[in-house]
Each structure stands twice: as structure tokens, then as C-alpha cells.
Specification:
With 610 residues, the chain is of the alpha/beta class. Among the domains are: 47 residues, Oligo-1,6-glucosidase, domain 2, CATH 3.90.400; 70 residues, Golgi alpha-mannosidase II (Immunoglobulin-like, Sandwich). Helices cover 29% and strands 16% of the residues. The chain has an eight-stranded parallel β-sheet. Keywords: Glycosidase, Hydrolase, Signal. InterPro entries: GH, GH13_cat_dom, O16G_dom_2. One of its GO terms (molecular function) is hydrolase activity, acting on glycosyl bonds.
């Protein structure tokens, strides 16, 4: 018992302490292996201050289009997601999504830190907070400021920003939104939690200050080399010859110029290259601003999630790692790499996880086979195939990265887990009712809940750091983007019924929407089990059974041993246990003898007792 207590204390110290041994440059920080990640989409998380709600002045994008419709207003948090309010009437649902705002802000996150701490999470990954006109914020207007509508004084912040020279960090000031974010960082750290920011260094928005200068001054702009510009406008002709590259062809997201490319560049593949030097210096200045505000790394963030990382050359990422680790040696870097060949092949994480680029990637590679094993789909995997898939993916990672990897299941870019498990399609393919009229978007059936709970046990007992997309613990459902971005279903709100959008039972056209306490309690229990049993963080894994729909594995170290069993079939199995005494951590039930009755669609997490 003394060994176990000591181990718990050491684990807490490794995560919560602000003063610890320096992290080797090529290793992931130790604290990241104990992380329970919670991903927040700020605009839809919680409206904590209605006085800073977005206005037309901050969401319109002239002269590139995307001007909000006449009569535009901030949407009500609790309205029917598929309904229409005044200004939306008669318009396409997806078109309305560009302009919908719900007023989520930093105060809303601060107000719910107690909720997150009660849930048990200890690491926050926050989608872009940088100043930008969109709801998603990947179209930066300013990298070096928090969005004005996330803070308490948008009008005052706009005046501060206008008085700066954005190209000169010496002139940068702290806006009210910036200061509130630093307060959030301080509050997170006070609770022995970590926090990382999300940035896309691959592109900016069309309202970005440097891009606006290019639009105005064309070939005379000091920032013309920052972007992939194919031709400038000729003022002597009536036509506008200005042409440039936007990320994946999206004109509202002009790409930062790539340079020094020495290998073939193609989507879904790493390549050797860098970015424009001027843009890079600006990015590095922004990086230092948030890692070490006023020269104090202890007051800064704990790392970055890097968007569309495969679009930027490895040379830049190596320099970026040096910049980050120079400022904060225990900072964590996680890259988004996704599709090699859509929709059948995910990228190889190997080039990004060797110690010179990232500490982890968003590990969709482990979720996809898990879905095919735990859910009922048209692409089923049996236990042996699932085991082989996991071992293949883990073996591509250096050992320390396996434990630090961010085990992503759902995000702002995927269907919610309940909906993903409720449908039988290929992962991410036509995962919405617009492309597939048979795709089910309403409340799932009871079997879906059962199967998802089995997967969640696997998520929290497997190798790597679990990640929760905000709202999953509330029992939210939703198809692919934009539906995973609904405002969160807080228990103190009363929501309108939600319209069903496809060919689900015709007698049921609406679903009741509310916070799901049972789902929350399941997440909370699993988080507590992981945090109270360090072997689930640092222990080795060994598969014991992998046959048909029955899977079992052992997590073990010198101190503890935990056995995890799953049965995804519709019949009961009787399994022989290794010699010893066990208690089921899910139920508290003691297991006597060496026989385990594993019912249909059930799981057991057995801890060997002394």
C-alpha cells in the first residue's frame, strides 16, 4: 500500500508541479503522459458575458464577401439547432452557419473551471482564441491578440489594436481580452491543470493586417512575399488580375508562402521546407508572447496544438520546436495530421514523432479501428484485427511518444461520438444528412449508448492520453461539421426540442435535448479510475484474449496490474482469470474464484488486490 501511495504522489507531482527537472529536447514532457485532455470550442462553450457579444463590425469580411444578412442577430443558446430565427428564414442551413454566433467567451470558460475540475480533466486544449471574424477563428485577423469578443471590452480592444504597429512587437499592448486570457491561464495553473493554444501557422484570414496591406499596396506591399501570390493587379487595366493560393482552394484563407522546398510537396505527406522569413519572425514573436508573457514562462501557456501540420515543411517545425523549448523546456507540441488518402488511409505519424518536431499527433489512427470494433458498422473488425491495428500504430511511435500521444476520438471536425457510433458508414465519409439522406442525426438508441460506454473504457485504460471533445460528457449528439459545434447542453438551461433532419422514424420528428447526467457520471468514473491508478498511465500493455468479439488486455508495472475485458457480442462468455484476487473498478464488486462471466455488450476492469 505504501508503494501505491508513493506512486500516486509522484504522479501528481509530475503533472501539477511548476518546478521539475528539465525535459530533454527530444522527449515529451512527463506531465503530458498523465493528461486528461478536454478540448474547448470557445464560441460554443459558454456565454459568460452577454455585454461582449459579437457585432456586425467584428464578424463581417469586406470586401471579400461574407457580409451578414440584413436583420442579423446573435442566436439564442437554447434554440433548435436546425430551426431558423428571423434573419435565417428562407436561407440554406449551411449558409447560415457562417454567420451564426452564440456569444461564447473567456468568462464562460472561467465560470466553468469548477465543472471541469469536478469532471476530473487536468489539461485544456482550446481551439483558436486569436482575434478573427469567424466562429472557428482559423481565419486570424491578429495572431498576437485574443479575439476582442472573447474579452470584456471589444470596443476598447479595437482601439488599442489600431494604435499598434502589428509588425513591431515592441508596440504590442495587452488588451482587456488578452489580460482575461492570462487570468484564465493563472486560474488553470492554480488548479494544477495545463492549457495549450491552437494555431494555424499555414494561413491567415483575409482581414489579417499583413494581408490587408497586400490588398491595398499590391506589389509595393512590404508583406507581398509573406503569401503565395500568383499575380498582382495591373492598375492600367479594368480587370483585377490579383490571384493567390488559399488553403485547399479557400479564398478566405490565404496561405503563408512556403520556401526552401527540397522534396515533393503533396497533401497528406510530410515534406522538407520552410516558410517565408518575415512571417516566421512574426510567428516566433507571437509564440514567445503566449509562452512567456512579460518574460515570465511560469505565467504562460503550456504548449500548442498545430493545425494542418502536414501543409508546412518539416524545416519550419524543427525551428519552431527549438523556439518553443528554448522558452519553455516542458512545453507540449501536438500536430494535426490526418488524411494520406481520403477517406481510406490516415497519415503515418512517424516523421513527426522522432523528437525533432512534435511530442504527439492527434491520434485518430487509434480511434478509427476502435470504432470498427466497438460500434456496429458496415466495416467490422474482430478482436484480433483490432489488436493488430493498435499494435501496428503504436509500434510506429517511439516508446515515450506512445504514452504522450493525444488519443483523439472526436473534435470540432468530426461527428460526435454518439452519432458516429449510431451510424454504419465508413469513418468520416458522408457523415452528414446533406451527403447521405439516410445518415441518422437524432438521439441514438440504447445499444449505441452501451457500445460507446465500452469504447470509453478502452479509451481510459489504453496507452496514451485520453481526449474529450467538449460536450461529449454531456451526452451530446451531432453529425459532421457544423453539427458537432452546437452550443453546449448545460444542465442549468432548458433547450427547445431539436428537429430531426432525415429518414429516422417518421412518427418522431423532434428529440428532447438536455444534459445527460448518466453520461457525465460515466466519464467522471473512468477519469477517476485512470487518475487513481498510475499503471493506466505508465504501465505496459499486453493482450490476453483477442477472439471474435471478445478482447482483453493487461496493464502492468512493478507495483500494480489491471485486467480489462470487453465483450461486444450479443451473448455471454465465461472466461478464466489469471490466479489472484480481483475487484472490478467499475462496479466495486469482488471477483471470487478464477471465473469471469462477461455478459453481452459488457466490460470489466479488474484490479489485482494484495
Amino acid at each position: 500500500m505504501k508503494k501505491y501511495t508513493l506512486m500516486c504522489i509522484c504522479l501528481f507531482a509530475a503533472f501539477g508541479s511548476r518546478a521539475q527537472e528539465a525535459t530533454p529536447f527530444d522527449k515529451a514532457p512527463e506531465w503530458s503522459k498523465s493528461a486528461i485532455w478536454y478540448q474547448i470550442f470557445p464560441e460554443r462553450f459558454r456565454n459568460g458575458d452577454s455585454k461582449n457579444n459579437p457585432t456586425l463590425a467584428n464578424i463581417n469580411i469586406p470586401p471579400m464577401g461574407q457580409i451578414a444578412p440584413e436583420g442579423w442577430a446573435v442566436n439564442q443558446w437554447t434554440e433548435d439547432w436546425f430551426g431558423q430565427q428571423g434573419w435565417e428564414t428562407g436561407r440554406d442551413f449551411n449558409d447560415n452557419m457562417y454567420y451564426r454566433r452564440y456569444g461564447g467567451d473567456l468568462q464562460g470558460i472561467l465560470d466553468k473551471l469548477d465543472y471541469l475540475q469536478d469532471l476530473g480533466v487536468n489539461a485544456l486544449f482550446i481551439n483558436p482564441l486569436n482575434d478573427a471574424p469567424s466562429a472557428h477563428k482559423y481565419d486570424a485577423r491578429h495572431y498576437h491578440h485574443i479575439d476582442v469578443n472573447f474579452g470584456p471590452d471589444p470596443e476598447g480592444d479595437n482601439k488599442i489594436i489600431a494604435a499598434e504597429n502589428p509588425a513591431d512587437p515592441k508596440t504590442w499592448q495587452w488588451t482587456a481580452a488578452d489580460k482575461l486570457f492570462l487570468k484564465l491561464v493563472s486560474e488553470v495553473h492554480r488548479r494544477h491543470m495545463r492549457i495549450i493554444m491552437d494555431y494555424s501557422w499555414n494561413h491567415t484570414g483575409v482581414m489579417f493586417w499583413a494581408w490587408q496591406d497586400v490588398l491595398k499596396n499590391q506589389s509595393r506591399s512590404a508583406y507581398k512575399d509573406w503569401y503565395e501570390i500568383r499575380s498582382f493587379d495591373d492598375g492600367n487595366t479594368p480587370e483585377n488580375e490579383f490571384a493567390y493560393t488559399g488553403w485547399v482552394g479557400v479564398s478566405s484563407l490565404p496561405e503563408i508562402r512556403k520556401v526552401d522546398i527540397t522534396t515533393q510537396r503533396q497533401n497528406g505527406q510530410p515534406y522538407e521546407g520552410n516558410i517565408n522569413e518575415g512571417a516566421k519572425k512574426h510567428i516566433f514573436a507571437v509564440t514567445e508572447r503566449w509562452l512567456s508573457p512579460d518574460g515570465k514562462p511560469e505565467n504562460g501557456i503550456d504548449g500548442f496544438r498545430l493545425d494542418v501540420a502536414d501543409q508546412i515543411g518539416l524545416g519550419f517545425w524543427r525551428e519552431f520546436r527549438h523556439q518553443v523549448r528554448r522558452i519553455k523546456p516542458d512545453a507540449y507540441l501536438v500536430g494535426e495530421i490526418w488524411w494520406d488518402q481520403w477517406p481510406d488511409k490516415l497519415m503515418d505519424p512517424t516523421p513527426y514523432t522522432q523528437g525533432d518536431v512534435f511530442d504527439a499527433v492527434m491520434f485518430y489512427q487509434a480511434y478509427r479501428p476502435a470504432r470498427y470494433f466497438f460500434a456496429k458498422t458496415d466495416f467490422p473488425l474482430n478482436a484480433e484485427n483490432f489488436k493488430n491495428s493498435l499494435e501496428y500504430e503504436w509500434n510506429r511511435l517511439p516508446e515515450d511518444k506512445r504514452y504522450a500521444i493525444m488519443n483523439v476520438s472526436s473534435t470540432h471536425d468530426t461527428p460526435r461520438l454518439l452519432t458516429d457510433f449510431y451510424n454504419t458508414n465508413k469513418y468520416k465519409f458522408q457523415a452528414n444528412p446533406r451527403e447521405n439522406p439516410h445518415y441518422r442525426t437524432g438521439k441514438p438508441d440504447e445499444e449505441t449508448y452501451q457500445r460507446l460506454r465500452l469504447y470509453l473504457v478502452h479509451l481510459f485504460t489504453s496507452i496514451g492520453a485520453p481526449q474529450i471533445w467538449n460536450g461529449e460528457e454531456m451526452g451530446m449528439w451531432g453529425a459532421d461539421d457544423p453539427d458537432p459545434r452546437k452550443p453546449l447542453w448545460w444542465p442549468d438551461y432548458h433547450f427547445a426540442d431539436e428537429t430531426r433532419t432525415n429518414r429516422q422514424p417518421v412518427e418522431k420528428q423532434y428529440d428532447k435535448v438536455s444534459f445527460n447526467q448518466q453520461q457525465f457520471d460515466w466519464y467522471k468514473k473512468l477519469i477517476a479510475i485512470r487518475k487513481n491508478n498510475p499503471v493506466l498511465v505508465n504501465g505496459k500493455i499486453e493482450f490476453m484474449t483477442a477472439q471474435g468479439g471478445v478482447l482483453s488486455y493487461k496493464r502492468y508495472n512493478a507495483v500494480d496490474e489491471i485486467l480489462v475485458y470487453f465483450n461486444v457480442e450479443d451473448k455471454t462468455y465465461t472466461l478464466e482469470l489469471p490466479e489472484g484476487n480481483y475487484v472490478d473498478l467499475l462496479t466495486g464488486k469482488k471477483i471470487e474464484g478464477r471465473v469471469l462471466e462477461l455478459g453481452a455488450l459488457t466490460t470489466s476492469v479488474l484490479k489485482k488486490t494484495k
